[in-house]
């Protein structure tokens, strides 16, 4: 078991393809930041070049934050299926999703039960997953624990939810969030908290250094590797 290091697909001001090329020497996996429904449905080979699999990377996808939940599960499924078709050739290993209103996850998974094993629900700045935790449990969904949101918005109590850490499949790690964006990992207030979390989750979790500038990402990956080595934790 070894933590897999990953980075988001937007660290230089260019399309997904050049970003992945820049990231290939740095990480084993890339998170495709597919944050806008309409824009990502319109991606073509200039955005997702057909030679991306040749880079030897694994991929996961961060699903849009503007999915049409208010229009019902059929509309959401239609939007997701259009995006899934765009990235199918990359064989994504999971999907990060911001929490929808209570009840919507249940309706989505009833319509698309095949999604349950792939979804990783993320705690966001304004939603810490507690209001949909019964759905996450009953549907058997995974969690993407955003450590930056955790420390920036005082969400540590979610760590006490029953079975929470056992459901973590992915972590977003960076120094914290503010109006200036995501801070590099050296600004993390308490690395000991990250160490405790990593000591309690599965050893095959994906660790996404969620920085959006290449220099800050490189610095943070170097520090993360130093910490993991010091803590006796395997990584690749």
Intertermini distance: 10 Å
* Rg over CA atoms: 17 Å
Number of helices: 9
Query: What does the overall shape look like?
Result: globular
Helix and strand content put the structural class at: alpha/beta
Strand content: 15-25%
Classify the helix fraction into a percent range. 25-40%
Mean pLDDT: 97
Q: Please count the beta strands (DSSP E, at least 2 residues each).
A: 10
Q: Numbering strands along the chain, what is their spatial order in the largest sheet?
A: 1-2-3-4-5-6-7-10
Helix and strand run: EHEHEHEHEHEHHEEEHEH
Question: Low-confidence spans: pLDDT under 50, at least 5 residues?
Answer: none
- Give the biggest sheet: 8 strands, parallel, barrel
Explain this structure to me?
It is a single chain. The chain is α/β, with parallel strands linked by helices and 236 residues long. The protein has nine helices and ten strands. It has helices at residues 16-23, 37-41, 73-87, 104-111, 133-139, 147-152, 164-167, 191-198, 214-230, and strands spanning 4-8, 29-33, 58-62, 95-97, 119-122, 142-146, 168-173, 176-178, 181-183, 206-209. An eight-stranded parallel barrel has the order 1-2-3-4-5-6-7-10. Helix 3 packs across helix 4. The relative contact order is 0.15. The model has no long low-confidence stretch (mean pLDDT 97).
